[in-house]
Amino acid sequence: MHTCLNGISKMIYTQFLLAATAGLLLLLLFKKWAQYRGIPPGPWGLPIVGYMPFLLKGDPIQMFQEFKKKYGKVFSISIGNFNCVVINDYKLIIEAYKEDVFLGRPAFEIQITRSHGQKRGILFAEGNVWAEQRRFAARTLRNFGIGNKNSMETLLQNEAQELGNFLAANVDKPMSLKSRFNASVLNSLWYICTGSRFDVEDPDFLFLITNIIDNFQKAESTGVVFFFPWVLKKDFLIKGFWKKYLETRDKTQGLIKASIAEHEKTYSPTENRDLIDALIEHRKKSNNPDSSFYGSEGEMNQLIVLLDLFVAGAETSSSILQWAMLYMIIWPEVQAKVQEEIDSVIGSSRIPSLEDKPNMIYTEAVLCEIHRFCTLVPFSVYHSTLADTKFAGYKIPKDTCIFANMRDAHHDKEFQKVPGATLSIQPNAKTFIVAPKPYEIIIQTRA
Length: 447
Ligand code: HEM
Prior knowledge:
This protein is mostly helical. The protein contains 18 helices and 6 strands. It has helices at 2-36, 52-57, 60-71, 90-97, 109-114, 127-143, 152-169, 178-194, 203-221, 224-227, 229-233, 241-266, 275-285, 295-330, 332-345, 361-374, 406-410, 413-416, and strands at 74-79, 82-87, 383-384, 389-391, 394-396, 401-404. Strands 1-2-6-3 form a 4-stranded mixed beta sheet. A two-stranded antiparallel ribbon has the order 4-5. The structure holds protoporphyrin IX containing FE (HEM). Protoporphyrin IX containing FE (HEM) binds at residues 122-123, 134, 189, 308-309, 312-313, 316-317, 320, 376-377, 380-381. Residues 122-123, 134, 189, 308-309, 312-313, 316-317, 320, 376-377, 380-381 line the site of protoporphyrin IX containing FE. It is a peripheral membrane protein. It is found in: Endoplasmic reticulum membrane; Microsome membrane. It comes from Allacma fusca.
C-alpha cells in the first residue's frame, strides 16, 4: 500500500514538473512573442544561429535586395542572439540616425574585448562617453587641420610626395600597391595621433601594417566575428584569428601607451603639439567624476580614442585608394579627364593643396563617385537601439542591431534619377566588382 502511494505521488510529481516546464516554456514563448510582436517582417532563420548560415552561403547584398522586394524597405533578420533590422532606403537611414535612440552600438564581444570590457572611445561607444569623446576629437582635429607646418594638410602633402617618389622610382615595374598604400595611410594616421612617423623599415611598423589591416579585412569578410565570437575563440573558420587579434590589440595599444608616456614626460601646458597633448591637457583639467575624461576612465578613453582613429582610418583609406586606382585603370576616359583638370589647375611643379579644391570640381565628383560606387562599408558600422522605439510604423525593441544598407542607398535607381544627384563614372558598366582581388599595376611615364 505504502509503495503504491509512493508510486502515485512520484507520478503526480513528474506530471507536475512536466506541466510546470511546459508552462514556463509557454510563458517564455509568450514573452518573446509579446516583445517581438509588431517588429518589421522578415525571413525566418534557424533556432540559435538564425539566418547566419544562409547569409554565409550566399551574397548578403543580393539577398537583402530580394528581401527588400518581398518585405519592404525595413525588414528584420535574426542572427544568433541578435535581432537585427535592416534599413534599405537613403531617406529612412537619415531619418533613423537623426534620433538619439538609434545611436547605440551592439555589445559585440570582439569590440568590447578591444576596449577592455566597456564601450569606450568613439567608434564602439555610446551615450555620454561617445558624445564627449567624439566632440572633443573632432574639434581638436579641425584645429590641427591646416595652416601650420605640423598641420594635417602639410603632413598629407609630404606623405603624398613620398608616395609619388616611390612610384616614380618604380616606373615600368609590375607591383601591388596594397602594402605601399597601407604604409602611407598608417604613417599619416600615426602622425595625426602621436605627432611622429615610423621608419618604413621599423619592425613595429611592419607588424602594424600587416596585422591591423589584415585583421580588419578578415573580420569584415565574415559577420561571424561579430555575432558568433566563440567560433573564432575555439579557432574554427579563420584559423588563428582570435590569437592574432589579441596580439595585434596588445601590440598596437602598447605602442600608443608608449607614445602617451613619452608625451606625459615632455608635456608643457603652453605647447599643444598634437592630439595626444590636447587629450592630456583636457584630462588634467577634468574635475567632474561623471566626465569620460576624468581619472582612470579618462586614461582608458584616451587610449581607445587614439586606437579608434588609427584603426577606423587605416583599412578604409588604404582600400579606397586601391579602388580608385582600379577604377582609373578600368575607365581610362575618366582618368584622362581627371588628369586634364590636375594639369590645368595644379600643373606639375607643385603638389596639390586644399586651396585647389574649389577649382577641381570634376576630380571631386569622381572621388565622391568612387566612394558611392564601391561602397566600402556596405552595411555601415552596426548601430543598436538604446530603448524600445517606433520606426516606419514598426516596433523596434531595445538592443536591436541596426544595419544601414548603404550599398542599396548608393545604388538606388530612384535616387539616381534626381538631376545632378550623381555623376556616374560607369555609364556602360554591366557588372559591379564586389571585392578587389589582389592586382598588380605598371606605372608608366606620360609621353
Ligand atoms: C574611405 C575612408 C572612410 C570610410 C569609407 C569610412 C566609413 C565610416 C563609416 C561607414 C562609419 C560608421 C558611421 C556610423 O556609425 O553611422 C565610420 C565611422 C567612423 N570613422 Fe570612418 N571612414 C573612413 C575614413 C576614416 C578616417 C580616415 C578616420 C580617422 C582619421 C575615421 C574614423 C572614424 C571614426 C572615429 C568613426 C566612428 C564615428 C562615430 O561612431 O561617431 N574614418 N567611418
